Each structure stands twice: as structure tokens, then as C-alpha cells.
């Protein structure tokens, strides 16, 4: 790359997106300098990353982890703790990759935007929960969100050249593609017998456990509708879902004249990650290249919204706005965790979220304090439903 060396902070460095981001950075040592990382567990991996990249600042979740990590890295490495530590690290680099999972990623999203940084965003939960607040901090000079989520990265690319007028008047709709997850075509009766190992097998992507379960319930696609609406400032009714089992068309934009623009590649998250940290330049890595010397087919079908109730819940949360998406995402985090801990069966994940949403009362969500209060209430209600 011809641009000057960019500094990078990678928060959530030990996870699936985190380790794939390291692959991108390893390929471009002259272009990027990793200066800060964080991780929720796996301290020895975190220490190894700090050593390999010569990172000077590391974030951990608690004091105990700080002490344990301090023994593994030298005294020249500064260790910061908790959400205030994450917020600090999110302000220190040109490009901030938010690869934390769940609502815990909020300080990264807010911190990076407040500091006028480029936020390369994988952590959809923070944007969904805090959409009205993120819309405000996004106006900070220099602040920019580039989406790592493959569908949104595709839409971002497909919107290039569209009208810059508010509300995207030349766009009819965004078409979010969905693999359909491991249970595409299954009946409700069959889904009642799903096991943990069934749900953890994704047909096309290898990802962290939370998003893998979200993909099996299609809650991930519901969350992605909310994510697209917030990212591109477009009503959720103009975001449609198309099931596409091959995961080659990563999403599409349909313009008012009927033209549909799509972005294609083999499924490989390093492609959207490299796009987000390299933009406006494209890195010549070749990950995800399609082989057109072999024949292959692309299929599309509508989602089964009756069997996968998470989709209607997400559209309803979008319609209500305010804190409703925060409730949906918080309740879902608790339900997924309960499933992964064998407290509830797979078939109860979405009903738990639906029961929590039944208790939601409209709240415009005008401050971070109100967001934390709403998040806590939704979690408490969901906890009550998953504990015997
Ligand atoms: P993961 O579980 O593999 O990794 C999560 C990272 O966050 C780890 O480094 C973990 O240590 C850290 N972490 C967990 N809890 C934390 C806490 N309380 N405080 C601070 N750090 C914490 O998850 P992932 O699959 O890499 O997903 C990360 C985010 O990217 C999610 O929001 C997910 O929806 C999104 N995403 C992932 C993929 C993918 O292919 N994995 C694709 C699109 C979007
Ligand atoms: Mg996605």
C-alpha cells in the first residue's frame, strides 16, 4: 500500500474474527502496525499475540487476568482492565477493529467513534442496542464505520455510486442474503429435537459459538436487519432477507430501476476484514477468489418466517425502535448462553426472547444510562425465564 502505515487496535483478538484479522495484518506488515489488543479469556494466546506483534497495550476483563497476564508479558506492556480499559484502547489507533462478542463490545464502538477513528465493526450487538446513540457519535469529525459483517460489507460496496441524498431515494431495497443455517428446510417437529452439536455445525462459515447459534435460529439474520437499518440509515421495511445456501452472493442492493448490484466471493471473512482496514485501497490478497473455470450454481429462496420466528421479532423491534432492539439483543444473549450451558433446549431460545419482548414498553433511548438500564432489565427478565 502507498498510504502511510496505519495503527490498528484489535479488540477481541483471540476470537474467530480476531484471529482472522491477525492473518490480514501478518500479510501486510508494512502497511499496518498493531498497537493494542484485548481478550476475554485465553490469556496465553493473548500474550503470544502481544509478543509476535510487539503490542504495547493489552486489555483484559478483570484484575485477576491482569496479574496473570503481567507474568507472561514484560513490564513494557501496559495492561488495562474492564470496559474502561476497552474504551481507552478504542481511542488510541487509526483503525479500531471491534471483534468483541455481545453487548460487552459497546465501549469499543462508542470510544472509537467519539475519538474520530475508523471503526471496523464486527460487533453488531453494540450497534443494534445503541443505534440512536451511535447515530450521534458517528457525526464526530473523522469518525467512520466500515462493516466487517460480510453482508453489510457487501452492501457498503454495492452502494458505491448511489445517490448521497438522505434516505437513499435511488434504492428500492437492500437484499440481505442468509445461508439458512444448519436447519434450513426443517419442520418445527424436527427442530424440537435439535442438539447442541447440531446447532454448532454451520454449513458454510466457521465462527464463534454465539453467532453460530444465532445463525441456527436465524436470529443472526434478524439482528443483521437491524444492523443494516442503523448502518445505512434505511427503514427495516426496505431490508429484505433472501436465503442463499451457497454463501457466495454476500448481499445485494436493488435500485429503483430494478437493477440489482451484488458482491460475490467464496465465504472467507478475511476478505471483508481486509476491505475494512485497507479501504480505500484494496489489498491484493486473493482470499475468497471464485474459480469460474468450474461450474457452480447459485440458489435463492424466501426464508420460512413461520418456522424461524426470530425474523418477525427483529422486524417488530425495528418498528418499535428506541430501546426495543437493545431488549431483543440482550434477551437473545441470555437465551443463547442458557442453551450453551444446557439450561434450555434449542427450541426455547426464540420463545424466551419473544416473552421478554412482550414486556417491553416504549423507551426512546436517549442516553447511555438509559441503555444500561434497559439492557439490565431485559437480561433480568430473560434470566428469570431460563433458570428453573
Ligand atoms: P468469538 O467468541 O470467537 O470471539 C469473541 C472475542 O471477544 C474473544 O476475543 C473473547 O475473548 C472476547 N470477549 C468475549 N467476552 C468478552 C467480554 N465480556 N469482554 C471483553 N471481551 C470479550 O466471537 P466471533 O465469532 O469472533 O464474533 C465476534 C463478533 O463479530 C460478534 O459480534 C459476531 O456477531 C461478529 N461476527 C462474527 C463473524 C464470524 O465469522 N465469526 C461474522 C460476522 C460477524
Ligand atoms: Mg453476517
Task: Write the topology of this structure.
Layout: E1 6-11, H1 16-27, E2 32-38, H2 43-53, E3 57-60, H3 63-72, E4 78-81, H4 82-89, E5 95-98, H5 106-114, E6 118-121, H6 124-129, H7 131-137, E7 144-147, H8 150-158, E8 171-178, H9 188-191, H10 196-199, H11 209-217, H12 219-232, E9 239-243, E10 249-255, E11 260-264, H13 270-278, H14 310-320, H15 324-340, H16 349-358, H17 368-386
Parallel strand pairs: 1-2, 1-5, 2-3, 3-4, 5-6, 6-7, 8-9
Antiparallel strand pairs: 8-10, 10-11
The structure holds nicotinamide-adenine-dinucleotide and magnesium ion.
Residues 12-18, 39-41, 61, 99-101, 104, 122-125, 149, 205, 207-208, 210-211, 269 line the site of nicotinamide-adenine-dinucleotide.
Structural features, described:
By secondary structure, the protein is of the alpha/beta class. The chain has three domains: 6-147, 3-Layer(aba) Sandwich (Rossmann fold), CATH 3.40.50; 149-268 and 300-315, no CATH class; 321-388, RNA polymerase sigma factor, region 2, helix turn helix motif (Rna Polymerase Sigma Factor, Chain: A). The protein is built from 17 helices and eleven strands. It has helices spanning 16-27, 43-53, 63-72, 82-89, 106-114, 124-129, 131-137, 150-158, 188-191, 196-199, 209-217, 219-232, 270-278, 310-320, 324-340, 349-358, 368-386; strands spanning 6-11, 32-38, 57-60, 78-81, 95-98, 118-121, 144-147, 171-178, 239-243, 249-255, 260-264. The strands form two sheets. A seven-stranded parallel sheet has the order 4-3-2-1-5-6-7, sandwiched between helices. Helix 15 (324-340) packs antiparallel against helix 16 (349-358) and helix 15 packs parallel to helix 17 (368-386). The longest helix is centred in the last third of the chain and has 19 residues, at 368-386. It starts with 5 loop residues before the first strand and ends with a helix. The mean pLDDT is 97. Magnesium ion binds next to helix 8. Magnesium ion is lined by residues 149-151, 224.
Amino acid at each position: 500500500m502507498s498510504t502511510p502505515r496505519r495503527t490498528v487496535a484489535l479488540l477481541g483478538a483471540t476470537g474467530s474474527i480476531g484471529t482472522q484479522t491477525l492473518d490480514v495484518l501478518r500479510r501486510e506488515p508494512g502497511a499496518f502496525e498493531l498497537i493494542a489488543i484485548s481478550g476475554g479469556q485465553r490469556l496465553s494466546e493473548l500474550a503470544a499475540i502481544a509478543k509476535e506483534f510487539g503490542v504495547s497495550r493489552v486489555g483484559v476483563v478483570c484484575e485477576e487476568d491482569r496479574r496473570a497476564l503481567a507474568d507472561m508479558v514484560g513490564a513494557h506492556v501496559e495492561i488495562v482492565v474492564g470496559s474502561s480499559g476497552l474504551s481507552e484502547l478504542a481511542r488510541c489507533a487509526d483503525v479500531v477493529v471491534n471483534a468483541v462478542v455481545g453487548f460487552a463490545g459497546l465501549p469499543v464502538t462508542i470510544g472509537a467513534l467519539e475519538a474520530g477513528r475508523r471503526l471496523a465493526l464486527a460487533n453488531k450487538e453494540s450497534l443494534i442496542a445503541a443505534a440512536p446513540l451511535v447515530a450521534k457519535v458517528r457525526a464526530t469529525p473523522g469518525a467512520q464505520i466500515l462493516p466487517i459483517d460480510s453482508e453489510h460489507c457487501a452492501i457498503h460496496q454495492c452502494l458505491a455510486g448511489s445517490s448521497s441524498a438522505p434516505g437513499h431515494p435511488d434504492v428500492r431495497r437492500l437484499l440481505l442474503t442468509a445461508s439458512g443455517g444448519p436447519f434450513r428446510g426443517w419442520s418445527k417437529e424436527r427442530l424440537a429435537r435439535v442438539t447442541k452439536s447440531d446447532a454448532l455445525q454451520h454449513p458454510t462459515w466457521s465462527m464463534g459459538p454465539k453467532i453460530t447459534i444465532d445463525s441456527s435460529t436465524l436470529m443472526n439474520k434478524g439482528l443483521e436487519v437491524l444492523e443494516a437499518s442503523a448502518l445505512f440509515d434505511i427503514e427495516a421495511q426496505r431490508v429484505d432477507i433472501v436465503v442463499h445456501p451457497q454463501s457466495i452472493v454476500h448481499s445485494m442492493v436493488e435500485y429503483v430501476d430494478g437493477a440489482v448490484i451484488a458482491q460475490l466471493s467464496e465465504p472467507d471473512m478475511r476478505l471483508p476484514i481486509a476491505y475494512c482496514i485497507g479501504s480505500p485501497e484494496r489489498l491484493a490478497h486473493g482470499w475468497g477468489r471464485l474459480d469460474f473455470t468450474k461450474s457452480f450454481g447459485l440458489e435463492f429462496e424466501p426464508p420460512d418466517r413461520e418456522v424461524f420466528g426470530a425474523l418477525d421479532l427483529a422486524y417488530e423491534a425495528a418498528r418499535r425502535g428506541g430501546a426495543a432492539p437493545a431488549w431483543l439483543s440482550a434477551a437473545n444473549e441470555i437465551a443463547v448462553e442458557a442453551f450453551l450451558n444446557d439450561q434450555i433446549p434449542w427450541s426455547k431460545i426464540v420463545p424466551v426472547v419473544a416473552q421478554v419482548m412482550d414486556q417491553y414498553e416504549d423507551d426512546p433511548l436517549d442516553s447511555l444510562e438509559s441503555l444500561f438500564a434497559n439492557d439490565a432489565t431485559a437480561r433480568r427478565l430473560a434470566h428469570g425465564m431460563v433458570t428453573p
